[in-house]
Amino acid sequence: MALSMPLTTLVILPVTALIVTAVSTLLATASSRLASRILVRHSSSTVSFPCVDAHQARESRILSSIPSQTSPDATETGPEPPYARPLPTSYHTYHHSGPLALTYGSELPSFDMAYETWGTLNAKKDNVILLHTGLSASSHAASTELNSADGWWEKFIGPGKAIDTDQFFVICTNVLGGCYGSTGPSSFAPAISSSSAPARYGTNFPVLSIFDMVSAQFHLLDHLGIDKLYASVGSSMGAMQSLAAGWLRPERVGKVVSISGSARSSPGSVAMRFAQRSVLMADPNWNKGFYYDGLPPHTGMKLARQIATITYRSGPEWDQRFGRMLRDLPTPATAVGAVRVPALCPDFLIETYLDHQGEQFCLKYDANSLIYISKAMDLFDMTLSALESLNLTPPLPAPAPTSSAPSGSPKRRYASPPAHLTPHPPAHLPDLAAGLSPLANTPVLILGVQSDILFPVEQQREMADALRMAGNDSVRYYELGGVWGHDTFLLDVLNVGGAIRGFLS
Amino acid sequence: MALSMPLTTLVILPVTALIVTAVSTLLATASSRLASRILVRHSSSTVSFPCVDAHQARESRILSSIPSQTSPDATETGPEPPYARPLPTSYHTYHHSGPLALTYGSELPSFDMAYETWGTLNAKKDNVILLHTGLSASSHAASTELNSADGWWEKFIGPGKAIDTDQFFVICTNVLGGCYGSTGPSSFAPAISSSSAPARYGTNFPVLSIFDMVSAQFHLLDHLGIDKLYASVGSSMGAMQSLAAGWLRPERVGKVVSISGSARSSPGSVAMRFAQRSVLMADPNWNKGFYYDGLPPHTGMKLARQIATITYRSGPEWDQRFGRMLRDLPTPATAVGAVRVPALCPDFLIETYLDHQGEQFCLKYDANSLIYISKAMDLFDMTLSALESLNLTPPLPAPAPTSSAPSGSPKRRYASPPAHLTPHPPAHLPDLAAGLSPLANTPVLILGVQSDILFPVEQQREMADALRMAGNDSVRYYELGGVWGHDTFLLDVLNVGGAIRGFLS
């Protein structure tokens, strides 16, 4: 029996042990990790693992791009994060020099907000659409004169498109907490004294809420002299911000568009984001958030993005797109009747797809931004009880619109929705309706996708139900089919774009 | 603007650099990782991260349990994996001294198979139920005289229970590739020569298929003199094995029970298992599968289990069980109106639940077993085209049972199922029906759960449809509601147990 056999010998070379001791003295916290690395492994696999070697190869590439500390040309500045390397000449930056009070008790002493615009602000300044992004997007929603690259919503924004720039002046910001020009954990905190060295926030950055992100945006609107938005538009986390904007300042937001969003993050979506944060924070390079002077947690970021990608698409899409197909082999087996030996590294196309998505993303975004912004999504909850626990007092709704109904047909107010969209309304629905009451007089478009597993359609229905229960009789509600899952808002120009265009007109 | 400010200084202590050089010489492959660790980080967080410290604390505990190499008592054997520490006196072991040919072309020179039994084998040896486990379970399905601890299916097996040990002789094995007594990657490979040191397989272990696992079980049955099973029963991966057993030897398997299984792994389930393997293989301690003489990849295992747990339960259960509740704080805020500052480490109960599940599991199971067995699940595909690509020729079905129908009512054979369970049968359904043809005359119970996201109900329906299309008119098919998701088979004694009992009687 295997278990009764003698076990493999463990060897530690004396010189290596000496090094361990030295390192331990210098860096006590790292010692156990180092010790684990220098156990000499005398067995080795006859199998190759390109997916594992990829992490080390990536690390070598990053290290080789860091200026050598011993070369005469060495600067004193350390590496710039890769995502920050393009010079920020392609967007505008609003600098807010005063403090921004935050939901969870602290404040930012000042902040920057990157933004881009499309279309022309009219004389009355009443044609403004504020566009909110998903978790990791920049302000570059569409190409501009400053940056001709396609934006993340290129097909939705432009002359004659769903968000028609012949009619509207569109503003998109990089979200507070992000890493594409707005203040976030990778930003330098204002120096405490003139003699102290500048330092990045790292995890000394305060926990943000979706409301904080929107508050910062209203400061930008103030700066631009824009009193009232024609509409607030967003998808995914942007839908949360869109709703929060209409809630925070009902009198300043004409219409609200929420696409594949949520008014109350569910434990299921928290779980998926928790899994991402966990793999990221377990990467030793994350170093509790202080990695800006060394290697970023690139492996953790890749793993996190792989998990995220699973939540962005849907099983039915993968059934159609990948099925059980395998990657092409560099040297296909040619022997007749030969059985292909499966690899433990990515082999199915679904695996190579996820691997590729992770690899593409892992150096493009700041790990701490991912942690803080995904946490803000988890924390989002517009039930009255949750808002009250944050000392957020619901403002009054905007004044009810003048009825355009013919006389003799008084405008009807619903005490409860005409019919629940969901046959089994959740217990928190009245609480959510009470929380959403500031939006009672704001026209709202709710659009959801039946194959979305991250913001499931039940959450879309409960949002619409709660708004109607709050007395809103201007809720437009659509559900889309299709197989694109959460990413539908990026892809389905015909249906998503059509619904937006109809609602805005 | 933040980006134009001077950057943080990077410092490398000379003595540390010297050590890097020495270590690099010794262990070239580890050098870049080491270099990354000894960049001196001079910023630090004012926030504590107990979820990150937990990984180091666990590592210290494991290291302190490894016998010191310099102490006079040091053995030459290295640490025993924690999961293997209980002595294997609580199960039987069948040793197969001959080679086992494997699906993917190689062979195991010999193998062990751990098993436990319940009930009494009758004189005809025709009351045997072979029970197959899910991915990580041991042979300990229920308590025995040798091991009084509750088993993983304790409530389902025993006198008068769903699997009635007053009637049946039940055998449960630890799966081939596992780490609870059966041969797997953590086992020692037979020595090539008498002078060579014994070495564990690690990732030199061959890739396994579900069919290989079942082949090994048939060798055990041969050894026990059991010609024919009354039934083959399994849930999750066990359901795949159960189906494979009936397929491989139709004449030796009387009935097949498949609970929350699949006849063809979908890309969606492959994706979830790929995410688990990825985080595990990215743990530097995994070391391409050769960690048995040092620290196991405990952090990777914890992260993998967190992801797995998300797939085992369901969002609706978490809505009910956790909602948006937060963990109790060690020192609750008492100030009136104080806002609780959220933690980036687990704070919501859903997060602490996932964290706990990962922590509990991470040292209980062998990482390589997880990789190999989850891969075998991904590879499982009973379409005829997939079977043919493995040179697996479908055997003939068992002889059709003598009709018990009254004369004048001839037994009807279906050319196609009487009605598809799924309104949109997948394109591969005829291929799957052809593949499953050896089971045409075997009574099969298919049971699925509507809230299962890992083995979704569509897969249950396609299995039943395909069997009926293959001419099987003894398919019993149930769908369960409820919120327990994939784990329903472990929890729902009333419905799952009842269906099994009814089918077996």
TrEMBL record, chains A, B:
Ranges where the record places region Disordered: 62-88, 397-427
Domain AB hydrolase-1 residues, every copy: 128-466
Transmembrane portions of the chain: none
Cellular component, GO annotation: mitochondrion
GO biological process, alphabetically ordered: cysteine biosynthetic process from serine; homoserine metabolic process; methionine biosynthetic process
Biased composition (Polar residues): 62-74
A GO MF label: homoserine O-acetyltransferase activity
Record-annotated active site: S236, D452, H486
Compositional bias segments (type: Low complexity): 401-422
Xref: InterPro entries: AB_hydrolase_1 (IPR000073), AB_hydrolase_fold (IPR029058), HAT_MetX-like (IPR008220)
Family that this chain belongs to: Belongs to the AB hydrolase superfamily. MetX family.
NCBIfam families the record matches: homoserO_Ac_trn (TIGR01392), PRK00175.1 (NF001209)
Protein's name according to its UniProt entry: Homoserine acetyltransferase
